[in-house]
Amino acid sequence: MERDVMASSAYEADYTQKVAFTGKGCFLPGTSIEILREPPGRGSYRHVLFDFDGTLSLIREGWPEVMIPMMVEILLETGTSESPSELEAIVRDFVMRLNGKQTIYQMIQLCEEIRKRGGTPKDPLDYKYMYLDRLMERIRDRRQALSTGRIQSEEMLVPCALDLLKALHDRGLHLYLASGTDEFYVREEARLLNLTPYFADHIYGAIDDYKSFSKAIVIQRILQENEIDGAHLLGFGDGYVEIDNIKSVGGAAVGVASDEAGRTGNPDLWKRNRLIGVGADIIIPDYRQYTALIDYLFSK
Fold this sequence. Notes:
The chain is α/β, with parallel strands linked by helices.
C-alpha cells in the first residue's frame, strides 16, 4: 500500500448520519429487496467488497453479550458510585455506536471511561486481548463444530451467502473481504466457513498497529491497483464503516440488515436505519433473493 493512501485513509470516523431518513424505499416486485436510490455504476461492477461478521459470518453472533459485561466489570473496579445497570447503559451506547470500526476503538473508549472515573487504564490492546479470550471461549463450540463437520457452514452464515458468492464468482467478478476483526481470525473463520476459494488472498482484517489498517485503505488499494474508479466497485456490509467508505469513493453499497440471532429473513430495523443514514443504496435482510438482486445490479 502506498504511504500517502495509508495516511489519508487509516482513521475511522465515528458514525454520522449523512442521509435524512425518508421512510421506505421501493421494493423489487415480490421481494424484500429495498431500493433507496439507483445505485451508481449499475451493470458495470467488476470488483466486490464484503464485510465479514454479520455480513457473511454468524460465528461471532452475540459478541456484545461478551464485550459489554466485561467492560461493566472493569468500570466497577474504579469504585464508581454508578450501579451495574447504569454502567451497562453507558457501555452499550458506546459499544454499539462504535460497532463497525475495528475492535480496538471500543477499547480506546473504555480507557477513556476509566479515566473519567479516576482510574488508570491498561493499554487498549490489553483489554482487546481480554475480550478476545472471552469471545473465543463463547464461540469455541461453534468453531469446533465447523472444523469437525458436525455442522455445515451454511448454518453459521447469513442465509444463502454461499449462493451469492458463487454467482458473483461465476460472473468473473473479483471478490474482497475486509473486516474490523483481527486478520488471523478472519482468515481462519473464512476457511472454516468454506469462503476462502471465493476470496483467495484478498482477505484483510485488523492488526495490532490499528493506524495502519482500515477498510478505506483496502478500498483505495483496490481502485489504485486495478486502475478503476468507484463506479466499478460494489460493496456489501452490515456496518456503517464499509457502507460509508464505499459511498465516499462513488461506489454502490448494499446494506445487509441481517437478523443474526434469528435468521428470520426480516431486516434488523436498527441496522437498516443506521445503514440508510450513511447512504446505502439498497437494503436487504439476507441473500435468499440473491438471483433477483443480481439481475437488478447487473442490468443497465
